[in-house]
Specification:
By secondary structure, the protein is an alpha/beta fold. 37% of the residues lie in helices and 19% in strands.
Amino acid sequence: MTATTKWKTDLEIAKETKLKRIQDIADDLGILEEELEPYGHYKAKISLDVMKRLEKKPDGKVILVTAINPTPAGEGKSTVTVGLGQALHKLGKKAIIAMREPSLGPTMGVKGGATGGGYSQVLPMDEINLHFTGDLHAITATTNALAAFIDNHIHHGNELRIDVRRIVWKRAVDLNDRALRHVIVGLGGPTQGVPREDGFDITVASEIMAVFCLAKDLRDLKERLSRIVVAYNVDKQPVTVGDLGVEGALTLLLKDAYKPNLVQTVEHAPALVHGGPFANIAHGCNSVIATKMAQKLGDYVVTEAGFGADLGAEKFLHIKARVAEIQPAAVVVVATIRALKMHGGVSKQELHLENVAALRAGLSNLQKHIETIQAFGLPFVVAINRFVTDTEQEIEALRAFCGEHHYPVALTEVWAKGGEGGMDLAEKVLDIIERGKNEFSPLYDVNEPLPDKIRKIARTVYGAKDVAFTAKAQKQMAQFAEFGWDRLPVCMAKTQYSLSDDPTKLGRPTDFIITVREFKPSIGAGFIVALTGDVMTMPGLPKKPAALNMGIDEHGNAVGLF
């Protein structure tokens, strides 16, 4: 590959790719013409009728892609997910990629996009990264419709005796907008509603996003929506969407968005991109319906879970796998030498310099994530996602570490070479699926007490010494036990940058205590969110957001997305 092509931007590579018509991609998967709903030439929604037609077909094998704790150096988990799918495609396997939809918040904020990179992207990347098929807008509208129904109910007499001081439902917008974290609504006199404190979550952190992604079908979607707790009444009892009687209207707003989206990669491999809950707040996986549909349409499904194995993989295995009844066939743990050097103490400015000692120091982070996957009883492969600044000595040091511990490892060059750069990884993944020992088992039983479940996650997955609960959290746990909510799975809200709840503690910290400051019941989603550290449900923009580089050229083509 020439130096010129090596340094092309993701957007340039995307624009140079000649896409196939989406009908051709659908034909390869055996999707019938009447089951496809095109959105233009290169993206489409798939009718839920596919699930009924293929209900007796055996499910394809699910390969989960996770990673070490992310750093500003980048890990390329989405890129490896796409590259592995393309490599399996090259090997003649009927493989489908299942990914989350990007949020406008991170796209306009720091990340600049979430469709993979280089020659391992899902396309059309500019459309997917922006409005796509409108799914996130539908979820935003549904969230805000519910907020409007709550305020309207109070304005017209408050038959449910909602305590306006105890409304827990927030409005949403799919942007990083710190000014909306805390607001006052209802000002302007009696005809403008009842004044009260309110706030906004980013759409991908809303409970409706989580419900959307965990619902198994439209009936389940409606039932989950009805269970959402929006407030407490004057007797401190929960008030639900079902009490308001608006679950039907909310389901109606989501009915088209709920159909999975079909797109393609640079190499025309099929990809279902659907749903997008944050992994440091929500459960960080694409929709259950898209993953299950991919299992019916293909023999292998390559999917990812957000951030490191301490967040996305743990939640995939404890929450999504339970709901969807998925038995993962294998796990890929993505690591980069750049990120490992940062975990070993190197600053971002010095990552281009060879530093084998720092790499070795940072390997403890990789080892902890591998131990987590082993604790779940799953076979795995370490994918070294190669960057151009990696030296042979550094690569060899990482290979040697894996060899010493008998960890299967593959050097992966999917950014630069597409599927061809992931062939070794694909072959090793297929090998461990056939030969590896798969004894998948969750780390906790959902019927265990809430603090016990949290301690098992903190000790086994994070390596924490113990868990501390604030007075508020303890009071909430007692209340949840009264309501029977303590028997739900736990969704940990924690910084993605560290195994601890302190984002500055890189590598593999020890002797730390995880502090749960409060809980948020997501009864519709079917889990209890445990908030740690300073994780917020509405992020802010950085001083120089990625949006500053974005625009269009004179032909209407996107520029500045990376």
